[in-house]
Amino acid sequence: MPVAHERVVAQLRDAGFGEATALAKAAFFSQCDKALDGIGAEAAGRVSVWAPGRIEVFGKHTDYAGGRSLLTAVERGFCSRAVARSDATIRVRGHDPMAGAPSTDFALHCELPMDASASASEGHWSHYVATVVRRVALNFPEARTGVDLAFVSDLPQAAGASSSTALMVSVFLAIAAVNSLQDTPAWRASLPTREDLAAYMGAMEMGGAYRGLAGLDGVGTLGGCQDQTAILCARPDHVVDFGWMPVRAIGAYALPASLRFVVAHSGIVAEKSAGARERYNRVSLMVRHIVASWNATSGRADGSLAAAAESGAEAHHALRALVPSIETPVFSVDALQRRLEQFLLETYTLIPAAAAAFAANDWLALSAAAEASQHAAEEGLGNQIPETTALVRLARQYGAIAASAFGAGFGGSVWALVDASRPGADDDFITLWAAAYGREFPVPAARAMFFSTSAGPAATHWTDADHT
Q1: The dihedral of CA 343, 307, 195, 14: what is its sign?
Q2: Taking a C-beta distance cutoff of 8 angstroms, is the pair 170, 92 a contact?
Q3: Does the CA dihedral 145-164-21-40 come out positive or negative?
Q4: Run of H or E residues at 94
Q5: CB neighbours (10 Å) of residue 126?
Q6: Total Cβ atoms within 10 A of residue 312
Q7: In whole angstroms, what is the distance from residue 115 CA to residue 135 CA?
Q8: What are the φ/ψ torsions at residue 193 (nearest 5 degrees)?
Q9: pTM for the complete prediction?
Q10: Contact at 8 Å (CB) between 295 and 319?
Q11: Whose CA is closest to 152, among 85, 86, 81?
Q12: Per-residue pLDDT tens for 302-357?
């Protein structure tokens, strides 16, 4: 039985969506209800879950190093409907309308036991579902009620916009709601705030423990919790500012209503599996090596590169002086120096400058900071490809206020901030940007995706009883 359309629209408006976007998302939730009806799921007691993708505006590879990031959610993501089962099985069906299949086609499906042994093939989307299920089973043994869940996602996959994390958040919030995990002693002790929940979900993805919640196999990436924090702690119409290790809110900067983000997925996937994951993890492992070497030579026990960098007035100089002595067969001095300099520049110069620019609506300063951040990613991280570099250049050429690549890199997407005070200006910008990209890179451009978005609301969930 489909949930009442008007009630869902009201719930989405309350979450922070504009009227047109709320209407579009409500249609997705109705599709999810039809999919649940089609598999004989219970009609009563259904839960709605929204989990967005995100833009890493600034903060390239800073989170797992203890740095700082500027983030926002997008208005694309996962719309899910879930309901309790009579057994301990997690049954998920999904549809990606961006794949070109009919809107009624929920061809994605998986079924897993609510058990710490739940597993799925690595590289398959269900691997992310299994990671959530086994961690919940381990950390919350009270959770014995299974879930039927159907989702529709309009977020491009493997594009750097955190589609995999958004899926994990969707599944977790649904299981948590059906099993009332927020009422358990473990939740009350370890997850009292949204920031704690984001840090926990980051640990879940990596496989680590969080406070009193034991770790278990993650998805294999050595990242942080930037994506989870953006998804769970975003604010509509704002860019949020967070520090890491631990997660802490620093500020939030209102965006003028006339400005919109335009996202371009390059058409080159940014999968965190196999060789791509190894390249991503290499960037992270260099940070671990620098911190371990620093602690060994200084006698300190700093838990992050940021803690080392902030340990004294001469710490930046001391870190730079250390690098020539810690070369390994895997990490050259040059690679370690470039990695260190990118982190120091992004965290202590560019992000403070960008935060001040957002606060003051100083778009010239923001443009300069974004350009420097992109250059540091190209030279310091080495995670850019010709397609993302070209997209940044072309965005500026066609009038973007600022532009930069985001996400893990080695593929993925670029954001551009554009003035949309004239109706249709963002659509016109997309037309020009996409056409220029297509002329330079016709093959990946055939797979590329461009969309406009406001700074959207964070993940949320509600029951059918709300707004009755």
Answers
A1: negative
A2: no
A3: negative
A4: strand 89-95
A5: 20
A6: 12
A7: 8
A8: -125, 165
A9: 0.94
A10: no
A11: 81
A12: 999 999 999 999 999 999 999 999 999 999 999 999 999 999 999 999 999 999 99
